[in-house]
Design a protein that fits this description.
Layout: H1 11-22, H2 24-27, E1 37-39, H3 40-46, H4 49-58, H5 75-86, H6 88-100, H7 105-121, E2 129-133, E3 144-146, E4 150-154, H8 173-176, H9 184-193, H10 206-223, H11 229-233, H12 237-256, H13 265-268, H14 288-304, H15 308-313, H16 317-324
Parallel strand pairs: 1-2, 2-4
Antiparallel strand pairs: 3-4
Helix pairs in contact: 1-3, 1-4, 1-5, 7-9, 9-10, 10-14, 10-16, 12-14, 14-16
């Protein structure tokens, strides 16, 4: 099975995303966008409400997607879309996005280069268009989604650090710090990797989670070589220094407590979840098991010289650990 985190979105959001996709062609001259990135949030809020249904109907099938849903034939559905665009809070969110992300040309270049490296590393990886949109829903886990044709970025998730007046919409500060522009490409490539990483059958163990996350981190490292190691693993510099210093101790903790083959998520979730720290180690880095997974995968690739495709398609995490000879 593949590791996937599908977007969970309201009907209005799905309609809105499809609406702005559909009216791209007509609005292209009036609505500036970054080359290669469809800035549908601009179209969403600048298309007159009285024209929105017509444009959605005209281009409804142009951008078919595994994730997006568009039913402009339904008047109640269209009413929800229009209400969404007129909501004062959502409008403020959009204005904030445009204040801090008026141009995404540098991101477009970075993602284009990363996608080129990804396709060279694994011939199964298909090119994706990049779509940005304003969701109005603050859900860190779903800030980026990938389907068979697109990478979809909820760009307002990355404007959260600029929304102090809304108390960062209730997100804890350790997540607010990860909602910054420099993480967008990392998040996109990690989400892309997880479309291709294969797990074995059965209930996953901690080791399965570790190796899967390690594969994603290894992929990000290969396709975004200029990004710092801290950014790739979404650590602060201080957290990365702690992790490097304590890698051996973390590994010993996992082995001594017989956690590697534990299947009860409750017993190890803090080792892989987003958090300000890993509780077992006091003041520490978060997601410590994921970092160990990355090092296991690196050791495995160095030993086997396997391709990215072969790495993604190997479902046996125990085999990867055993073959890697990993010893911090």
């Amino acid at each position: 099975m593949k590791i996937q985190k599908p977007i969970i979105a309201a009907v209005a959001l799905l309609a809105l995303m499809s609406a702005v996709v559909s009216c791209r062609q007509k609005q292209q001259a009036e609505q500036p966008k970054s080359e290669g990135i469809y800035r549908f949030e601009r179209l969403m809020f600048d298309t007159p409400a009285e024209q929105l249904q017509e444009e959605m109907l005209k281009h409804q099938a142009d951008f078919a997607s595994d994730i997006l849903v568009c039913v402009p034939q339904d008047p109640s559905y269209m009413a929800q879309v229009v209400d969404f665009t007129r909501d004062a809070t959502v409008r403020t969110i959009y204005d904030t996005v445009m204040r801090y992300f008026p141009d995404l040309s540098s991101l477009e270049k970075e993602l284009a280069q990363a996608m080129d490296r990804a396709q060279k590393a694994d011939g199964e990886i298909a090119s994706r268009r990049v779509i940005t949109f304003v969701s109005g829903m603050f859900d860190y886990d779903n800030r980026v989604a990938v389907d068979s044709k697109s990478i979809l970025i909820s760009i307002d998730q990355y404007a959260v650090p600029y929304m102090q007046n809304y108390n960062y919409f209730g997100l804890p500060m350790y997540l607010v710090q990860l909602c910054r522009e420099e993480y967008i490409a990392v998040d996109c490539m990690a989400a892309l990797a997880k479309e291709y990483i294969v797990l074995g059958d059965g209930e996953p163990t901690l080791l399965d989670y570790m190796v899967a996350e390690g594969k994603a981190l290894y992929f990000v490292d290969q396709v975004l070589p200029k990004k710092s190691e801290a950014l790739k693993v979404r650590y602060t510099d201080e957290q990365l220094r702690w992790m490097k210093k304590n890698e051996k101790s973390v590994w010993a903790y996992l082995v001594q407590n017989k956690l590697l083959f534990e299947k009860d998520l409750y017993q190890f979730h803090n080792l892989i979840d987003e958090a300000p720290k890993t509780n077992a180690f006091g003041e520490s880095a978060p997601r410590t098991a994921n970092y160990i997974g990355w090092k296991i995968v690196e050791a495995y690739v160095q030993k086997t010289h396997c391709s990215m495709q072969e790495l993604f398609n190997e479902p046996d995490a125990h085999k990867i650990l055993r073959t890697s000879g990993y010893r911090p």
